Structures are given as structure tokens and as C-alpha cells.
């Protein structure tokens, strides 16, 4: 039996509270894929990041949910680089990470870590799966078409991990949403998305741009308190579809969890001739605990 150290880091905290916990394993070069999956299953968090040496970037990071490996996780990346910063292993203002999805930039600004994402691409669900039925999906979330933010419709957005964005008309509707049955899991498989990111422009705190929730039962995630990849997609959606032509968005998440875990995600948009060229998602993080486990 072998041992490794698990660092639990809360990413995207809001005024030193809340955030989304991720597990970080440093010096993971000798771990097999099977061992990584076993550790991720035991970690107690929805994302586990394994950090090893890279010949093409500052570090190599592999991301696992309790069920499977995934291409990218912003909140786990934020956890990794915040921990490296705290341990004195990352002292410059910029870095890069190697993942199975390519090499991404990371930078440090005003005690926050920002992670580069791909420019978002959007698709109608019917373009992916012709049997898609909006009403069936919404009923599986305790919603109906009357709850949508008209004239907008659900859309698939992708900056690395595709998600189904669902625009809702107010905070009351966002609050009542829940997973009713297996519909979302099945639709996520058919559409090949991580899950759905429901959002409203009706926010808890003045100055924020949207309030959101993530459901991803396909990967064993009933609800998540902060999802950087999804926030990046949402920032692009707000810019392109709601005509919010600004360079930074503040996305709140985690307020409707029980117990609540308020999180704040900052999305920066860089454009060329009003077309999105780069997306960066960032925020604060705090180390919670470190412990040794057997696997």
C-alpha cells in the first residue's frame, strides 16, 4: 500500500469565505492513471488535480472527477497555482500549464490567479442531437419554458469542457431548480456536455453580473459551488448574446447550495475588433487542510 499527501484548497472564495474545494496532489510523476482515479474517488472533492513535471510548460496537470478524467478544471487549476504560490514554488507573475487539452497561460494579479481558456464556441442543442427536447429537459430540472429569460434559449457553450447554458428570468426560478430524475444525466450524455449551467441576471450582490448554478450528474456532481470553465463560457455568452460589451464580468455561484458556499468568479474578456480573442477566469483561493492517505 502506498501513501500520498492530499492538499484541500478552496478556490474562488468570496471575501475569504465559501469557494469550491479541490484536492491537489503535488509530485505526482510516478502515479499511474489507475492510481490517480482511485485517489480522486477517495479525495472527497469533485475535482482532483495531479501535478507533475513538464518539458513544455511550468507544470503538467491532470484533472479527475470521482468517476473519470476530464480535460480541464479552472477551480482546480486555481487551487494548484495558489498552493504553489503559498509554498514558494511559483514566484513569477506568469506561468503555463500542460494538460491533455493543450497548454494554457496562467498569471498572478493582485493576489488572484487567472487562467486562460479557449475562446468560447456556441451551438444549438439540436445541432448536436436531433432528438433534443427542451421541455423534457426543463421538466427534469423542475422548470418549464415559462422560466426562461426570453427571447433566449438554452445553448451549448464550449471553452474546453462543453456545457449547456440555461438562461433563467429571475433569482426565484434559479433557486427552485433541482435535479428531478435521470433526464439531465441522459441529456448530458447524448449532447456530450459536462452538465448544465443555469444563470440569472438577478444577482445577490450589487455590482455582480450574473448568479449561477452548475448541475453535472453525468460526472457525479449534484451541484457545485464554483465552476471556472462554466463562468468563462457564461462571460462569453453575456458579451455575445446579451450585448454586455465589457471586459470583465463578476459571476456569483454557490448561494443556493445547502449549506451555502458563496463563491466569486472573475471573467476577463480580451477582444479584437469586438470579437472575443481570449478569456481568462480568476479569483482567490485558500489552503484548507493537508493530509496523508493510503491508496
Automatic annotation (TrEMBL):
MF (Gene Ontology): isomerase activity
Any Gene Ontology CC annotation: cytoplasm
The keyword Acyltransferase belongs to this UniProt entry's keyword annotation: no
Keywords associated with the record: Isomerase
Protein name: PhzF family phenazine biosynthesis protein
This protein's record includes keyword Isomerase: yes
InterPro entries: Phenazine_PhzF-like
Family statement drawn from the similarity comment of this UniProt entry: Belongs to the PhzF family.
